[in-house]
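Quick question, first post here. What does this chain look like in 3D?
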Amino acid sequence: MRWWMALAFASLCLGVSGVRGQKAEAGIVFYVAPNGNDAWSGKLPSPNRSKTDGPFATLQRALDALKTLKEQQGGALRQPVTISLRGGTYFLSEPVIVTPEHSGTTQCPVTIAAYRNEKPILSGGRRITDWRWVTANGRKVWAAELPEVRDGKWFFRQLWVNGNRAIRARHPNTGYLQVAEVPDVTQETAWNQGQRRFRFRDGDLQSWGTITDAEIVVMNRWVESRLPIVRLDEREQMVEFGKRSVFRLDAGDPYYLEHCLEALDAPSEWFLDKRTGTLYYLPRSGEDFRTAEVIAPVLTQLVRMVGDPKAGRFVEHLIWRNITFAHAEWYFPEASLRGQEVGGFAQAAVEVPGAIYGEGVRHCVFEGCTIAHLGTYGVELARGCHENRLIGCQFFDLGAGGIKIGERQIRDDKGEQTFSNEVTDCVIRDGGRMFHSAVGIWIGQSYGNRIAHNEIADFFYTGISIGWTWGYGRSLAGGNIVEFNHVHHIGKRSDGDGPILSDMGAIYTLGIQNGTVIRNNWFHDIAGLRYGGWGIYFDEGSTGIVAENNLVHDTTHGGFHQHYGRENIVRSNIFAYGRDWQIQVTRPEPHLRFRFEGNIVIGATERWVQGNIGDFNFVFDHNLYWREGGGQIKFGNLTWDEWRAKGMDKNSLIADPQFVDAPRRNFRLKPNSPAFSLGFKPFDLTGVGPRKKLVR
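> Answer (accepted):
Ran it through. Tokens below.
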């Protein structure tokens, strides 16, 4: 297309739409409303007086109208198109399907947006009504009959009452029990070999009448295993399962029992009897079943945006704005190995899908959206997704994690690779409610992504995870930028629950990642159960990563840990108040492992560096160390003088860094700080986390 033709075409689009980026409806508009009708034109925001025309009733119908419009215009839009959703809840009977035929263009995008200030909700659930009072388990509870459950056509594991997540009947109601003994484990049992039974402590469990409706959820190492009970023997104090645990169980592992009628003993708990189809719910004080909105999930996914990236066909130039997505659930498919034999995942609940799924999606935007009340991950950008943006979105009450970018598989075809996506100014909180090992943001075999100005909090496992190659094999996870994020209360939630898992970090990396940079982030309150509550965690094979200008404090096992890797740079950070030690290094290797330079490290422990340091294939220099309360600090088993005699920290100091108020976590430096003599340059974190003006 000649330049003057392209300019005229763009002017036509912009002339119709007005200033690009404004939120007013523009160009061609289709309306959707709960009181609409798919037989109408969709060109009116409300039904007309005669009820002969008005908005569509479903988003899918509006997308079909968009597709027809494109066909009438020769396959390309001549104006921007807006699909405007009126407020209310749209209960989906199947996922909304978006294909390349629904795409916009750079000049004429397609926008799916809330009508003015109204609040549309795309729900994968269904309302449950016709409640009555009954007595169950000796308590007065609500009950509803669900014939589809009785007939084996529906079953669910999440429930929401008046917008709050209800609790599958649980024992104990708070806290955790501990595995007493694992009889099938010997010294020769591999750590990754799971079991199908364990012995419980006297009085912890009982052989209740509905015990085989229940699951044991046991936490071990860095994962949970959801294990359906097939037998419980009180005399032997043994519980047996229909699946094996992901890894070898150990005495002392925390667990709880879920979904047993006899455990229905606390407000907001519920039990679903699959034999009778009866749903029982013990209400909170003040809840009235005559007015309560009770929703159970029907769908696994709410939106599927699917192109064919291998063929060069993408869903593109589509904007979602101010839409709420809610009420979806996933559970192990019975046909899969994990459906039949294994009760969990090797890491990060990685196989749990996103309620919003993208494949072959590029140049698309989610802005100001809310993704909540899910049993899944929130958003998944899988094969062939690139140059998409999530801006100012809210994620909360998540059964798994927030966002997945990329895949576990390495794609050779660039068209099928996932890269250059952005997540900015989002809040991702309260995750891992069902799959406890899920993470806030997971990036697999994907490169060039930017994760910036987000808040991630209240997960039982890791905040941000990047990479899916263990060791030095081929990896696509390079060039990712992680900056100005506020990641906190990982492992132990802000409500005090946890830690229940180990081996985690505010940020966690795997494999070769040349060009990945972690900078200007605030990481704090990271807690592992038995080990591994770290701030910055370079795990197996992490290579070519720079971590700089980060503030990391209040961790259980240190601000920084490198398991093994090569040629990483850790510089100009502040690490403070590791509980057990401050820094950890694990596997010796015959190459430069990392450089640790220009950092400030403050704590109260004698052990400063924990792990295997004997090869000295790393560099420590120009650092400032300070032990509060006095006393020596040790690097492995070496004193300060012995450490320096090995060539480490030749130009470093042990001195009070002169923070303004470190006990109250004010880590600004006073003008007389000795850090300045070492060349330390203070970094400004006032802009960390979501920028308010970009969050709805």
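The two ends are 39 Å apart (CA to CA).
DSSP finds five helices and 65 strands in the chain.
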